[in-house]
Amino acid sequence: MRLKGKVAIVTGAGQGIGAATALKFAREGASIAVCDLNAEAVGVVESACREVGVQAHGYVLDIANRDAVVAMIGDVIARHGRIDVLVNNAGITRDARLQKMTLKQFDDVIDVNLRAVFTVTQAVADIMVEQRAGVVLNASSVVGLYGNYGQTNYAASKFGVIGFTKTWSRELGPKGVRVNAVAPGFIDTPILSTMPDEVLQKMREQVPLGRLGHAEEVANVYAFLASDEASYINGAVLEVTGGLTL
Known about the structure:
The strands form 2 sheets. A 7-stranded parallel sheet has the order 3-2-1-4-5-6-9, sandwiched between helices. It has 246 residues and is an alpha/beta fold. 48% of the residues lie in helices and 17% in strands. It has 8 helices and 9 strands. Helix 1 (16-27) runs parallel beside helix 2 and helix 1 packs across helix 8. It has one domain (7-238): NAD(P)-binding Rossmann-like Domain (Rossmann fold), CATH 3.40.50.
């Protein structure tokens, strides 16, 4: 088990990539802090992780709320005495064209996808630096590399996450903390469930592999980057897109 004895926080862990990542980490031996707004989903994922045989604790919180984040991290430290991995997975979309996007739509996405990543990482940074060890993994997106129609706010947040990753890898790397980002492409998650079949088919046709990705395939990459097998990977942005950008 590649993560045996590690303590990991996964935000947005109630469904999709976050849930798959929490379960993958549990199967690799990590103790998991399952964080999400959805209380029912937190309970389901927490139970699934415990069934694997590891410690798991659920935290129902809005990661854009700094006080809630600090309280969650304090509880994780009280339980385990350390934090080895942070997966900043939580994210939302509020799509609209530039001329139609409201300030609330813009702010909501920036608050969750960018500001909260800063808040949570800042809250664990001192802990990891004191340990002289730790891994921060940030969820960017293929949209953060190439932009996308109707996603001014989302693209800005995911571009920003890449900026965080590059900067923090320089600041924290010398202190034993690695920081990397993953940029998924079209992944079959609940976010896509409302899209018409014809739209999903067009998305598949854009991917050289001819299909959408699975949440577990992104979780596998996170698990690798969190492990000692990736000990010399720092400041990287790893695409998981099936070749979408070729």
